[in-house]
């Protein structure tokens, strides 16, 4: 069963390191999160990183064939 992971905990610092190897933020995202379940709230943590690396946020939307994206439900 898939488990949601939080980019703020796992990913933002790692992305800076992996970037030194010449990989793009989108490549990092695809490999690290393939098969995982993400909430929309979690995806928001990655959006600024994608934008700062020059990737298109629409590319993330097109990854839904590789990732299960759960809608974030606000409130109680």
Would you identify the regions where 5 or more consecutive residues have pLDDT less than 50? 5-20, 64-76
Query: Which sequence of strands runs across the widest sheet?
Result: 1-2
- Span between termini: 24 Å
Number of helices: 5
**Structure summary, number of beta strands:** 2
Précis, in short:
The chain has 76 residues and is mainly alpha-helical. It has helices at residues 7-10, 12-19, 25-33, 40-52, 57-61, and strands at residues 37-39, 68-70.
SSE map:
Blueprint: H1 7-10, H2 12-19, H3 25-33, E1 37-39, H4 40-52, H5 57-61, E2 68-70
Parallel strand pairs: 1-2
Describe this structure in words.
- The structure is a single chain.
- The protein has a two-stranded parallel sheet.
- It has one domain (about 5-70).
- The model is unreliable at about 5-20 and about 65-75 (pLDDT under 50).
- It is built from five helices and two strands; from the N terminus they run αααβααβ.
- With about 80 residues, the chain is mainly alpha-helical.
Keyword list:
51% helix, disordered C terminus, 76 residues, mainly alpha, two-stranded parallel sheet, 2 strands
């Amino acid at each position: 069963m898939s488990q949601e992971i939080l980019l703020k905990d796992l990913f933002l610092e790692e992305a800076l390191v992996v970037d030194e190897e010449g990989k793009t933020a989108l490549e990092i995202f695809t490999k690290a999160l393939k098969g995982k379940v993400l909430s929309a709230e979690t995806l928001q943590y990655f959006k600024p990183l994608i934008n700062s690396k020059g990737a298109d946020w629409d590319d993330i939307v097109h990854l839904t064939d590789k990732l299960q994206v759960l809608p974030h439900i606000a409130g109680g």
